[in-house]
Amino acid sequence: MKNSLKVHAALLVVALIYAANYSISKDVMPRYMGPFALVLLRVVGATVFFGVLSRLVAPHDRIQGRPDQLRAVACGVLGIGLNQLLFFSGLNLTSPINASLIQTIAPVVTVLASAVLLGEKLTLPRLLGIGLAASGAASIILSRGPVAAGGQDGLLGNVYILLNATAFGIYLVLVMPLMRKYHPFTVLARIFLVGAVLAVPAGWQQIQQPDYASFPASIWAAIAYMVICLTILAYLLNNWALKYASPSLLGAYIYLQPALAVLIAVALGKDALTWSKALQALLIFAGVFLVSRKPRQPAPAAVPLEPVQD
């Protein structure tokens, strides 16, 4: 019971961290700092943290063999480098609600990637779910509602978030074998290091542009939040919870994150919830629900049941 409460608490904290980020990031970008500069700070900070932590916790654990090395590079490129560069570029241009809803289709991409890469079967309900989620996401991407001021390209921002969700969905399929074979901190240290190879050159120019002396305390707090809470704490809690959480429980928190993001964005005046966005969210949620349901396995014939242990 205690462990179950801890899992719920960890997943709730992670959902709140990610949900709040959609609005907090908008305070920093683009007025004080560019999106690539934020990514540089996040990735370099996490690279140092997980590099040190992996040496302390699992000093003799190493990713070995050419296939695993290549897989780790792919995970670092997709799950860290491209994922974060695309996400912050997209969030810089689009609204918090649009970004949070579009990113929810990542589980749909994961199922499609599993079908292509692992040969998993696509059932009729899952195909229907993919269609529903895709129609909801396409409706958001193509909508031309008000976004951030300054003539920013909301359509381009929505496309960036879609590509971000796609990269992250494929990453989830690729990283699972590594997480099962090596210590999580060993994997995180390596993939963040690979991500830093992309993030540092991409953000080097933007990191030199801001007038840091003019930053108010609230902006420094927001940057610290994104580096410490969003990058390090969220990854730690998520990896711990994944050991104990069921797929259905993880699915429930997939829906909670955008709902919290909407509430936070509306409460802070960063965005407005309209009936069209509510309908788009309903399409995506229904699609993700159908996709996330595992196909029923045929019951084995003439196999005696064993007592279940609590």
UniProtKB/TrEMBL annotation:
Entry-linked Pfam families: EamA
Subcellular location: Membrane
Main subcellular location: membrane
Membrane topology: Multi-pass membrane protein
Keyword Transmembrane helix appears in the UniProt entry: yes
Domain called EamA: residue spans: 9-141, 156-292
Alphabetically ordered keywords of this record: Membrane, Transmembrane, Transmembrane helix
Protein's UniProt name: Multidrug transporter
